[in-house]
Amino acid sequence: MAKSEKKTSNPKAPPLFEINNTTAPPEKPSKDEKPPFEATTLWDYPKQSYGKTPKGNNKFQGVTPAFLIWNLVQRYTNPGDLVVDPMAGSGTTIDVCKEEERKVIGYDIAPKHPEVIQNDARNIPLPDESVDLVFIDSPYGDNVAYSDRPEDIGKISAEDERFYHELEKVAIEAHRILKPGKVLGWLIGDQWVKKKFTPVGFKLHERLAKYFDTVDVICIARRGQSSHTGVWHYRAKKFNFYLRGFKYLFIMRKPAKTRSKVKWAKYK
Ligand SMILES: C[S@@+](CC[C@H](N)C(=O)[O-])C[C@H]1O[C@@H](n2cnc3c(N)ncnc32)[C@H](O)[C@@H]1O
Fold it and tell me: Are strands 246-253 and 213-221 parallel, antiparallel or unpaired?
């Protein structure tokens, strides 16, 4: 028996050695085809979608990996809660939420799913404090041409401060519609273009932290990137740069309302 391995009282339970082994291989998709419920801050899943029906459109450039929305929905909502995605694109959030029996509204400036409503994320037509979870996978700069719409924030370079200014307006709207104590999940990646690195994630987080408390930061492994080919790996090593291997998922909480501390003695 290994030194660190101890017997547990339940004979069917795995040895403590296995429980404590932090390098355990990632869980495989379970038989009912739901993704694994994540326990660490490193999330890696081999496919864009899961289950028997598609979630979003995996042909859409910029589609969100469905398993991460599923994990946020499991952690931070209950059946019947309202989830809103203000930049819903091909509707991954809609498809995940409907299967999990959550109410859901998806908006986008250029919808690519029949249930996504056309709307600018900087002005969301919902009342204050009416939503249980907001999820956003925004543009990461101007690397993808999403639409010809002038309101498309994906037309602004991540090297331009205006990009963060416009995303901050979206964050303010997310904050307004969320109920106090509820969560915003925001997915974003850094940029390396023309020999220049831009820390898009850090810069966005700085803006989000003005309004929200950070619950945690999750590292999402990037799969199926067009640059994940032999030739790009060769170039990265030969010309001494790195290919983007992960995205950030910022989990932010709108602070719960605290009762103001009135010093009544002052009014006596
Ligand atoms: C990364 S994609 C979202 C992908 C989506 N979650 C999915 O799974 O298909 C970013 C989206 O932001 C949208 N967008 C850009 N500017 C916007 C704006 N001002 N208001 C609403 N949506 C906007 C784009 O049209 C694009 O669909």
Answer: antiparallel
